[in-house]
Design a protein that fits this description.
Blueprint (H helix, E strand, L loop, with lengths): L13 E2 L28 E2 L6 E2 L7 E5 L3 H12 L3 E5 L16 E2 L4 H5 L6 H11 L6 H9 L1 H9 L7 E3 L9 E3 L11 H16 L3 H4 L5 E5 L2 E10 L4 E11 L5 E7 L2 E4 L14 H6 L16 H9 L3 E2 L4 E8 L15 H5 L3 E3 L14 H11 L7 E6 H7 L1 H9 L4 E4 L1 H8 L3 H17 L18 E14 L2 E3 L5 E4 L14 E8 L4 E2 L10 H18 L15 E12 L2 E7 L14 E8 L2 E8 L9 E7 L6 H7 L8 E7 L16 E7 L3 H13 L6 E8 L8 H10 L3 E7 L16 H7 L7 E6 L2 H13 L7 E3 L2
Parallel strand pairs: 1-27, 4-5, 4-13, 5-9, 13-22, 20-23, 30-31, 30-33, 31-32, 33-34
Antiparallel strand pairs: 2-3, 6-8, 7-8, 10-11, 11-12, 14-20, 15-19, 16-17, 17-19, 18-19, 21-22, 24-25, 24-29, 25-28, 26-27, 26-29
Length: about 800
C-alpha cells in the first residue's frame, strides 16, 4: 500500500467548519447584511426563492430601548427588514448623548479622503483602535467596526447629510474623522445634533407608526418619557429568552403608570453610566470610584439603566472599570465648579488647537495623543491650576473647524478672543516672552516635522501676531468603554456558559432575543476610545442589531437553495492553528438553518479575476443549528486561488456565494434508532475533520449512546490538530467515542504521539472490524482519500461499508 498523506490541499473537498468550540453544539447567532443598499421599503429573504420580497415572512415585533443614535439606527434597520418597532426613550426628547457629539464619525476609503489624497487603510484604522484600547479591545468587534465604516458613513449620508470635512484627531495615524463642513448660511453645524435630526425627520416623514400602518405592517412608534424597569424573560436551566419590556410612564395627571410591551426581540441602546456617580446602585462608584468626583460631559440620563437591568438577568459584563476621561471639558467662567461640563470637542485640536499651561503659557503635551495620554499630561502638569489648561486656536484653526460653532461657543462665554500673543499673555497673567517662545518653538517644530513631545502632525501655523481664541478646559468623565458583552452579531451574552457536559466550558451563550448596540455594550474600545469611534459604533452595531432582531421569527427559513447561489456575509475569520482558519458566514435570517442533512455538502463560488471559481465543502453545522455557516480552510503561502482569495476578505464582504445542499451519505440516519448502522468510523485528514465534527456532534445531540464512534484524526503537524483538546474532552465524557491521532511530521520535536501517514496498520488499530452495522467515512486530501479507498477492500471492507468525500 502506498503511504497516505494527510496534508491539506486547497482544492480538495474539505469540511464546512466549526467554531473553535464546535464539537458538540453551537449557538444560533448570525449577522444580517449591513451592506444592503439603502431603500425606504423593507425587504426579506423568501424561503422558497431566496429573492427579496416586499415584506417579511413572519413580521417580528421589536422593542428598542434608548433613542440615541444606536437606538434610532436599530429602529430604522429593523423597520426596513420588515419589523413592527416600538422605540422607548426615558427622556422627553430623542438624541441622548449622541446629539452632543461634535468631533465626527470615523471612516476609511471615503470620497472625502480620496478627494484629499489621504491614503488611509482598514489595517491602519484597526491598528489605531486596538492601540488606543491598550490591547483590551475585542479583536473581532474592532474588525467589524473598521470593516463596516465606509458603509456606515454612506448610511448616514443617505439621510441628506454630507460629512466631507475631515480632521485627524488624537491617536489616529491619518485624518479620518468626518463631520460637516461650515454651512453656507453661517449657522453652526454640530454633527451629532444634525445626524439625530436627520434620522428623527426620516422616521417622522417616511415611516408610518403602528396606528397608521396597521397592526401587521412594518412601522416605528416612538414612546417618550418611558423608563425601562425590567425585561420580560422566560428561562429554564439551559437558556433565557427575552420576550418584552416593563416600563413606567407618566399619565396626563402626573401619576406613574407601570406598563409592559411583549415582543419577539429587544435591542438595548440605553447608553453608558458616565453620569451615575450619585445613585445608590452607581456603577461608576462600584467600578471606578476613584473617578466619581470628576465632572462629566454627559447628560443626567447616562445612568447605565440597560447595563444594570441586563446584569440582573445574568448578562456578561466586560471592562466596566474602563472609564474614559476627556481632557477638554469647557470650564464655564460663570460656573467653574459645575459638575457637568460642555464638551470641547477633540476636533478643535484636530484642526490645530494647542494646549498651554494656564500659569506659564508653555505647551506640555502632543495635543493629538490619545485622550488618555493628554488627560494624564494635564493631571501631572496642571495640578496647581486645579487641573485646568488653556486651549488656544488661531484664526486658521477656527476657519478649518467651523467659525459658526466657535461663535456659538464664544456666545456662551467659553472662548475669549485676543489680538496677538501679547494681549493673551497679559490677560492671563503669564510672561509674554515665554508665550511668544512657545509659539516660536511650535513653528520651528512644524518646520522640523516633530517636536519635543513627539508631535508630528501640525494642522496650522502659529505666529505671535495671530488672532487667538482661548478657552479654559479640564478633564471630565466622558465615556464608559465597558458594558454588556456582545458577539459579532450584536447578541448580548449570558455570563453563564453552556453546560460543560454539552459545550466547551468557556464558551458564553447569547441571551435569546436580546441585542445591544452603542455605549451600553463593551469590548469595542477596550481601555480607551478614539474620537469618532462612538458615532461609528452606534451605526455599525445599531444596524446589525436592528436587522438581526427583525429576522428572529423566521424559524423555518432554509438559508440555502440547492439551485441558486446566494451571497452570505462574512462575519469573522479566526486563526485556529498553523495555517488553518475558521471563516464564519451569516445565513440570511437569525433563525435560518442550512437545510442540510448530516453528511451533505455545499458548493461555494467566488468571482476571482473576473472568473468564477467553485469549490465544494462539507458542512459541520448540525441540521437544526441556526443562523450561520463556518468554513474551515487551510491558508498558507502555497495555498490555492480560493483559499487565498477568501483569506483576503474582511468582515462584511458579500463576495462568497453558497449553493446547496448537495449529495449525502447513504444510510446515515442518526435520528432513526432503528437504523442498522451502530458503528461509525471516521478518518479525517487536516481540515477534513469538519464533516466528522458534524457527525459526532449530531450523535451526541440526539443522545445516541448506542452508536459507537472511532475517529482517526491526522494532520501535517501537531499544531494543525486544531480540535484535539475538544475531542479529548468529549472522549472523556462519552464512553462510546474513541480517538487515534497521527501527524506527518513533528518539526518542533514536541509531539509524543504517532508520526506517520494513515496506513493499513493504523486503520486496523483505530477502526472497527468489517461488519454489517458499520459505516466508515473518509474526508481529507485527494491522495489520502484515494489511497484509503484502495486499502479498505484489502482489509475486508466491502464498498457499502465506507463512503469518501473524494
Amino acid at each position: 500500500m502506498r503511504p497516505v498523506h494527510t496534508y491539506f490541499v486547497a482544492t480538495t473537498v474539505v469540511g464546512l467548519a466549526v467554531l473553535v468550540y464546535w464539537l458538540v453544539q453551537t449557538n444560533h447567532s448570525i449577522r444580517t447584511d449591513s451592506m444592503t443598499p439603502i431603500t425606504t421599503q423593507p425587504h426579506h429573504y423568501n424561503a422558497e426563492s431566496h429573492h427579496p420580497t416586499d415584506g417579511p415572512l413572519t413580521p417580528a415585533t421589536v422593542v428598542v430601548v434608548g433613542a440615541g443614535l444606536a437606538g434610532l439606527v436599530a429602529s430604522i434597520e429593523a423597520y426596513r427588514a420588515g419589523a413592527i418597532v416600538t422605540l422607548l426613550e426615558k427622556e422627553r426628547n430623542v438624541g441622548g448623548n449622541s446629539a452632543k457629539a461634535t468631533s465626527g464619525m470615523n471612516s476609511v476609503h471615503s470620497e472625502a479622503q480620496a478627494a484629499r489624497g489621504i491614503l488611509d487603510s482598514y489595517d491602519a484604522f484597526e491598528h489605531d483602535t486596538v492601540r488606543s484600547g491598550k490591547g483590551l479591545s475585542d479583536p473581532l468587534l474592532v474588525k467589524i467596526l473598521t470593516s463596516d465604516a465606509p458603509d456606515a458613513l454612506k448610511f448616514i449620508e443617505s439621510f441628506g447629510l454630507k460629512l466631507d470635512s475631515i480632521s485627524q484627531c488624537g491617536g489616529h495615524s491619518f485624518p479620518r474623522t468626518h463631520r460637516e463642513g461650515p454651512r453656507p448660511d453661517g449657522k453652526p453645524a454640530p454633527v451629532g445634533w444634525d445626524i439625530i435630526k436627520a434620522l428623527k425627520d426620516y422616521i417622522a416623514n417616511s415611516v408610518p407608526s403602528a396606528s397608521a400602518a396597521g397592526a401587521d405592517k412594518p412601522s416605528i412608534t416612538i414612546v417618550t418619557n418611558a423608563k425601562m424597569l425590567d425585561l420580560i424573560v422566560t428561562s429554564d436551566t439551559d437558556s433565557k429568552e427575552v420576550q418584552g419590556v416593563k416600563y413606567s410612564q407618566k399619565t396626563p395627571e402626573g401619576a406613574e403608570e407601570i406598563l409592559e410591551i411583549r415582543s419577539d426581540a429587544v435591542v438595548l441602546a440605553t447608553g453608558g453610566f458616565s453620569a451615575d456617580a450619585k445613585n445608590e446602585d452607581s456603577l461608576l462608584r462600584e467600578f471606578a470610584g476613584h473617578l466619581a468626583h470628576l465632572p462629566t460631559t454627559n447628560g443626567p440620563w447616562a445612568t447605565g439603566d440597560g447595563v444594570k437591568i441586563a446584569r440582573r438577568l445574568g448578562a456578561e459584563l466586560v471592562g466596566l472599570d474602563q472609564v474614559q476621561i476627556h481632557p477638554t471639558g469647557f470650564v464655564d467662567p460663570k460656573d467653574p465648579e459645575s459638575a457637568v461640563k460642555f464638551l470641547a470637542p477633540e476636533a478643535l485640536r484636530g484642526h490645530g488647537g494647542i494646549l498651554i499651561h494656564p500659569l506659564t503659557g508653555k505647551r506640555f503635551v502632543d495635543e493629538l495623543s490619545t485622550r488618555a495620554v493628554v488627560t494624564a499630561a494635564i493631571f501631572s502638569n496642571c495640578a496647581e491650576a486645579k487641573n485646568h489648561s488653556l486651549l488656544v486656536l488661531n484664526q486658521e484653526a477656527v476657519d478649518r473647524f467651523d467659525p459658526a460653532t466657535i461663535g456659538f461657543y464664544t456666545a456662551r462665554g467659553f472662548f475669549q478672543k485676543y489680538q496677538g500673543a501679547e494681549a493673551l499673555a497679559t490677560s492671563k497673567g503669564f510672561d509674554v516672552r515665554e508665550f511668544e517662545n512657545t509659539l516660536a518653538s511650535y513653528e520651528a517644530a512644524l518646520t522640523a516635522g516633530r517636536d519635543a513631545f513627539g508631535k508630528h502632525v501640525f494642522p496650522v501655523k502659529f505666529s505671535v501676531d495671530d488672532t487667538l481664541y482661548v478657552c479654559t478646559v479640564t478633564p471630565s468623565i466622558h465615556y464608559t468603554m465597558g458594558g454588556l458583552k456582545i458577539n459579532g452579531a450584536a447578541e448580548i451574552l449570558d455570563a453563564t456558559p453552556y453546560s460543560p457536559s454539552v459545550y466547551h466550558p468557556q464558551q458564553p451563550r447569547p441571551i435569546y432575543g436580546l441585542f445591544g448596540a452603542g455605549e451600553v455594550t463593551g469590548g469595542v474600545h477596550g481601555g480607551n476610545r478614539l474620537a469618532g469611534n462612538s458615532l461609528l459604533e452606534c451605526v455599525v452595531f445599531g444596524r446589525i442589531a436592528g436587522q438581526r432582531a427583525a429576522s428572529i421569527k423566521d424559524r423555518d427559513v432554509r438559508g440555502l437553495n440547492p439551485n441558486t447561489y446566494i451571497p452570505l456575509r462574512l462575519r469573522s475569520s479566526q486563526q485556529l492553528g498553523g495555517h488553518i482558519r475558521l471563516f464564519r458566514f451569516d445565513l440570511p435570517s437569525y433563525n435560518a438553518t442550512s437545510g442540510m442533512d448530516v453528511g451533505q455538502y455545499v458548493s461555494v463560488r467566488a468571482h476571482i479575476n473576473d472568473q468564477p471559481v467553485i469549490r465544494m465543502y462539507s458542512p459541520c453545522n448540525r441540521p437544526d443549528e441556526r443562523g450561520a455557516l463556518d468554513l474551515l480552510i487551510k491558508v498558507d503561502p502555497k495555498g490555492g486561488v480560493m483559499s487565498t482569495f477568501m483569506n483576503s476578505l474582511r468582515p462584511g464582504s458579500l463576495e462568497m456565494e453558497f449553493q446547496g445542499p448537495h449529495g449525502g451519505i447513504k444510510g446515515l440516519d442518526i435520528e432513526n434508532r432503528s437504523s442498522p448502522i451502530k458503528k461509525i468510523g471516521l478518518i479525517a485528514g487536516g481540515t477534513g475533520i469538519a464533516p466528522m465534527l458534524q457527525i459526532i456532534r449530531s450523535i451526541f445531540h440526539h443522545q445516541r449512546d448506542d452508536i459507537e464512534i472511532n475517529l482517526i484524526y491526522g494532520a501535517a503537524t501537531p499544531e494543525e490538530l486544531v480540535f484535539r483538546e475538544r475531542l479529548d474532552a468529549a472522549a472523556k465524557k462519552h464512553p462510546n467515542f474513541k480517538i487515534s491521532y497521527t501527524v506527518d511530521s513533528d518539526p518542533d520535536a514536541k509531539w509524543s504521539g504517532r508520526v506517520g501517514f494513515v496506513d493499513a496498520a493504523l486503520i486496523q488499530q483505530g477502526m472497527f472490524a468489517p461488519s454489517d452495522d458499520i459505516k466508515i467515512i473518509i474526508c481529507g486530501p485527494w491522495n489520502m482519500c484515494q489511497a484509503i479507498k484502495k486499502t479498505l477492500p484489502t482489509l475486508g471492507y466491502t464498498n457499502d461499508m465506507f463512503y469518501s468525500f473524494m
